[in-house]
Amino acid sequence: MDATTFQLSQSLSLRLKNISASLTLLLAAYLLYSVLPYYQVFASKELTFFSYHFITRDALQLIYVIYGSLLLVYYLSDRNPRVSKSIYCLRVVSRFMLAPVRTCREGLSSEERLGLLTTLLKAFYAPLMVPWLLDHTTHMISNGEFIFNNPELLRIDFLAVFNVHGFWFLFQIILFLDVLFFTIGYLVEMPVLKNQIRSVDPTLLGWAVALACYPPFNTVTSSIMGWTPIDFPQFETPVVHVSVNFLLLLLMAVYTSASVALNFKASNLTHRGIIATGPYRFIRHPAYTCKNLAWWIAAIPGIMAAYQISFFQFASAIASVAGWSIIYALRALTEEDHLRKVDGEYDEYCQRVRYRFIPGLL
After folding, report:
1. Which residues pair with 47 in a beta bridge?
2. DSSP string of 24-83, one letter each residue
3. pLDDT of 9 above 90
4. Which three-class secondary structure state does DSSP give residue 268?
5. Which of 111, 168, 302, 362 is the residue whose CA sits 20 to 30 A from 311?
6. Which of 173, 200, 340 is nearest to 259 (CA)?
């Protein structure tokens, strides 16, 4: 066997190993989420795409097949195949199953740790993002279709249309863009996109404060805080109601502009290169700032109602919202700590953008 033939053989072997490892993990994720009760709530939801009705589960099964097929094409066509994170992840699983004590004592190599954490990260977030993307897409189209088919209703009863369709149409456009980039970020990692994951936060605190903000863990967080974030607050005066909710939409639009700036690098707990464009030119955590400001605005009716009851209820309402803000502040601090430990790129960015949350203040 000459050198060229040997290289081709080795390349094909590596491609097949990458394919096998990735498809094994994909199948494992599918089987896991098909039996977890909480995620069946997402899967059983009925959606409408224009006039076509479907169950989310059916769409997810199709997406799994398409995604698996694309992985197959990618690994076979990759010009410079390398050992994938999926292989490193399965190596860790195999080592732990065969010799758990020894594996814990010896620890993991940097490649194994990155492969394991990346797989866990994608396995948690991707199954959330895809159903959300489907949900936002179908409801955005449904609400938009109603508005564009009934423009006269905007003149006859603007407030009613705004409450039932208008606000949600705009809100879902904003969330659609946000979730779209994060969905791609979790599912696609390619050198040509320059979005390869260099590092995943290895700390328990970093993961804890991040997971506390997402299902199913956010239900526990809401129970502890005594308040669940509100998307669409209600105010008695129509002018105030519409104006405040447009302000809320504006804040959420800036929030999503941060996701657009991250582009295909959008993902939690990762270092994929530092972004200094869009709102990241002004503060280091624009998404967290805008989301929390929107939540404080949405909490105003509840806080005012609590004030009418007693000072204790008033203070408790404020503390509940503040609790969520503290979690996001911790997310910002743990993210910065992680990014600084990877390389000096984030320190250089911090020298250019001094403020975390509020320009000139904080």
Report:
1. 54
2. HHHHHHHHHHTT-HHHHHHHT-EEEETTEEEEHHHHHHHHHHHHHHHHHHHHHH-SS---
3. no
4. coil
5. 362
6. 173
Q: What is the pLDDT of residue 10?
A: 72
DSSP H or E stretch at residue 200: strand 199-200
CA angle 78, 82, 88 (to 5 degrees): 130
301 upstream amide cis, omega within 30 of 0: no
What digits encode the pLDDT tens for the residues 184-230? 999 999 999 999 999 999 999 999 999 999 999 999 999 999 999 99
Domain range annotation of the chain? 188-362
Single-letter amino acid, residue 118: T
Q: For tokens 């498809």, what's the residue?
A: 23
Measure the CA–CA gap between 266 and 186, rounded to whole angstroms.
Answer: 8
Interacting residues of 282 by C-beta distance below 8 A, sequence separation 6+: 353, 355, 359
**What is the three-class DSSP state of 199?**
strand
Write out the DSSP string of 130-161. HHHHHHHHHHHHHHHHHHHH-THHHHH-HHHH
- Tens of pLDDT, residue by residue over 316-337, are 999 999 999 999 999 999 999 9
The pLDDT value given to residue 206: 98
